[in-house]
Amino acid sequence: MTDWPRPSYTGIARVRGPLVVVTGAEDVGWDEFADIRVGPEGAAAGDEATGNETVEDDRHGLVLDTARGRVLVQVLEGTGGMRTEGMRVTFSGAPLRVPVGTAWLGRVCDGMGQPLDGGPPVLGGAGAPVAGVPLNPVHREPPAEPVLTGISAVDALTTLARGQKLPIFSRAGLPHLELAAQIAAQASAGDEPFCVVFAAMGLTHADAAAVRETLEGRSASGELVLLLNLADAPVIERTVTPRIALTVAEHLAFQEGRHVLVVMGDMTSYCEALREVSAARGEIPARRAYPGYLYSDLASLYERCGRVRGRPGSVTLVPVLTMPGGDITHPVPDLTGYITEGQIVLSADLHALGVYPPVDALESLSRLMRKAAGPGRTRADHLDVAAQTTAALAGARRARELGELIGAGALSDTDRHYLDFEEACRRTLISQGRTESRPLEQTLDRAWRALAELTRRELTMLPREMIDERLGREG
């Protein structure tokens, strides 16, 4: 950014949706930050009729496009009440930056990083661009070691690795926000420095209050950064919120040496905001009217997590998204699945049975689980127990489908054992309280209790010595 005064431009050609077109602007680049001042003559008509005295209104924007002296600016606070007359736009010559540092810990802010907790503005000793800086792939370390969430269905069967990106796929009406807040409240990296950055997008006021209540303890302990973008906030704010969250997380991880868990949701709300801006720009739509660059835009967010060689911290990402109509082939979950390393899928059937969290173990997968679990990381029997539990759940599904065809009375004893195991697994391992944090030792012991419903010859994925130790020689 230059030190000399920047020129202001008053040639406003059009105000449309969240966008403003500025004419006559020279030497303006993409992603530049802009200050927009709306004078009394630029305010919407109606103030004079009510007798209210109009004052200057300061807003901010980002440059989306520039060509032949015309600049397209998206207004972060929205264009409500703005007219083309009396408006002055000043371009900073640099991208949008936010302060970074430990001053963010314990703070509750809106989607643009402005305080909601009654405290002063967040200040830092340094600033960083919200767009992030691409990380050289050769400097990346593979994800390893676990981030334990206190949720048995996740820790036992889809273990999260430090530096991994593992989304939660849900649908309307399921408790995905509640589960995400519980993970943020309970997660840990053992005895190493740890904190959480929670970026919520498109929340109602009631949901925002519930999230703040759930995370109050972690915020009070100085281990949480909470960004709340409300549903009635300008749509453009929603496109900036996850980038601010990741910028803050990157500094806490790679400069302060902390392991940072970033929870972002709802990513479907974020993608719908992108679609609205794309439509306002007049871009040619792609699948379901989403912009054609949706994949690369999501990748620019998801790929900011990971570990850096020679630095102790890590950024682990858990995006939460709802699948419209429960369609996993919808563009948002479909493209997310291409970029991330697995998924945690919530089941409407389990939710109807009163199971919380309603995690479908057979649809869920953590492709990096072997990097985060097993001897020296969690417990020696962890991977074997997870493999056997998943295989037994698959057997139970086959038995249940067979029973629907030929009748439950015609099932074999083995099939009934699998059905008994499924019920025990649902009751003992999957189900837990909405504020209950289970240690991993207790989680794996519960898995063994469910596996005890099966006979020894059905435990084909467990070593004999392990079965003797855990279930006894006559088990």
Sketch the major β-sheet.
10 strands, mixed
Share of residues in strands: 15-25%
| SS content category | alpha/beta
The whole-number mean of residue pLDDT values reads: 91
Count of β-strands: 21
Shape call: elongated
* Ends apart, CA distance between termini: 72 Å
Described by its quaternary structure, the protein is single chain
Radius of gyration: 26 Å
Unreliable spans = 44-54
> Helical segment tally?
15
Q: Which percent range fits the helix content?
A: 25-40%
Based on the model shown, name its key terms.
ten-stranded mixed β-sheet, alpha/beta, elongated, 475 residues
What does this structure look like?
The chain is an alpha/beta fold. 34% of the residues lie in helices and 23% in strands. It contains 15 helices and 21 strands. It has helices at 47-50, 152-157, 176-186, 205-214, 216-220, 235-254, 267-281, 294-302, 331-339, 348-352, 369-372, 382-406, 413-430, 440-451, 464-471, and strands at 8-9, 12-16, 19-23, 32-38, 57-67, 70-75, 87-95, 97-100, 107-110, 126-129, 140-141, 144-147, 160-162, 168-170, 194-203, 224-230, 259-265, 306-308, 314-322, 342-345, 365-366. The strands form four sheets. Strands 9, 11, 14, 15, 16, 17, 18, 19, 20 and 21 form a ten-stranded mixed sheet that branches. Helix 8 packs across helix 9. It is elongated, with a radius of gyration of 26 Å.
